[in-house]
Amino acid sequence: MLVFDGRSLSARPLIAALSLALLALTGCGARDDAAKGGKGGAKGTPEVGYVVVEPTAVPLISELAGRTNAFQTSEVRPQVSGIIRRRFFTEGSYVKKGQPLYQIDPSLYQAAANQASANLASAQASAEAARVKAARYKPLAADQAVAAQDYTDAAAAARAAGASVDQNRAALDTARINLRFTTVPAPIGGKIGRSLFTEGALVTASQTDPMTTIQALDPMYVDIQQSSAELLTLRRALANGGATPASAAVRLKLEDGSDYGLTGAVEFSEAMVDTATGTVTLRARFANPQGLLLPGMFVRASFAQVTEPNAFLIPQVAVTRDAKGNPQVYVVGADNKAVARPVTTTRTVGANWVVTAGLKPGDKVITEGVGKVKPGQPVKPVAAGSPQRIGPPKRDQAGASSGKAG
């Protein structure tokens, strides 16, 4: 007998009531385990998304540093000495080829040209007199009216006078050329810089400092630096047949990070390695109609040099690492079981890995749900990007979620 609140109760009815309560709680716990997916909370077959891979041609994109250079550069220097009398251009403007830039005082050169012209006229007169004299002596010498030596001397004098005419004509041409050089023209067309000499300054034909500089800015060159080791690797890949040459446009990224809208093309590469930097220079040519590119700018050039013809593009999320750190992917094998496949990855292209070994055409590579897959585990494969299938809750699960207890 038990005594509770002054009353005596039987022990057997109390034990029976407690047993019924424990059985009810045990039944609810079992239904909760069933709602979670089986005995002891075990999960069902995981659903994974896959993509079917096929080989494709993948270009090898190289991004290298480069510097812009003018298409043509001309340092304007005088070819005669003298005082600058006039300047005909505006600094920073565009000039045409042959346009006059400076006028050097032509007084001395005009006088030299006049003197050379007079000397030529004198030589021509002397040559004419010598020619006539030799012509007169010729028949007289034949008739022995004059000594043969006299005719020989007259003929030689005529030839010497003719040579003197040629010498004076050449001197006149030189004087006229020097006179023409007093007007300094633009050797090329382009944008002209500041003038380093003003009116009244003395310039000489042998000076080292240019009077000004002209640069042709459309088109423009971009000198790209590539390491000799990378270039050697590319050439070996081409020689072994593992890659094919690519002829793709070159794109530029400017110093502020923006993209240059126009594309260019690589024209040639240097045949020697710079011993100071260990790089080879590749030169690309770009149109520059708006003058956005200026000489000396730092740019980043990206272009395809070779193409891998039989590579696979695999999303980066599909590539994992094994215990040794080697890359691997999971493929859907026989009987819908996950199979770990070691692969060879060379580089990334956007959001994808470039895989060159380890896969076959038609393989189903798991790209979604990779974290819940183990080697040899059965999976439920669906095409990647398919919506997740969520069915209605079972009756016992609905009862458990609504708070009903057995």
Provide a concise account of the structure shown.
This protein is α+β, with helices and mostly antiparallel strands and 406 residues long. The protein has helices at residues 11-35, 107-142, 148-181, 228-240, 395-401; strands spanning 2-4, 7-9, 47-52, 56-76, 82-87, 94-95, 100-104, 183-185, 190-192, 202-203, 212-227, 244-245, 251-253, 265-269, 279-286, 298-315, 320-321, 327-332, 338-342, 344-349, 352-357, 364-368, 380-383.
Between the first and last Cα atoms, what is the distance in angstroms?
32 Å
Helix content: 25-40%
Tally of helical segments: 5
Number of strands: 23
- The gyration radius over C-alpha positions equals 47 Å
- Note the quaternary state here: single chain
Average predicted confidence as pLDDT = 80
Poorly predicted runs of 5 or more residues:
1-11, 20-42, 393-406
The major beta sheet can be summarized as: 11 strands, antiparallel
Helix/strand-derived category reads alpha+beta
Shape: elongated
Strand content: 25-35%
Element order: H for helix, E for strand: EEHEEEEEHHEEEEHEEEEEEEEEEEEH
Notes on the protein architecture:
Mean pLDDT is 80; it is low at 1-11, 20-42 and 393-406. The protein has helices at residues 11-35, 107-142, 148-181, 228-240, 395-401; strands at residues 2-4, 7-9, 47-52, 56-76, 82-87, 94-95, 100-104, 183-185, 190-192, 202-203, 212-227, 244-245, 251-253, 265-269, 279-286, 298-315, 320-321, 327-332, 338-342, 344-349, 352-357, 364-368, 380-383. With 406 residues, it is α+β, with helices and mostly antiparallel strands. Strand 18 (327-332) and strand 19 form a beta hairpin.
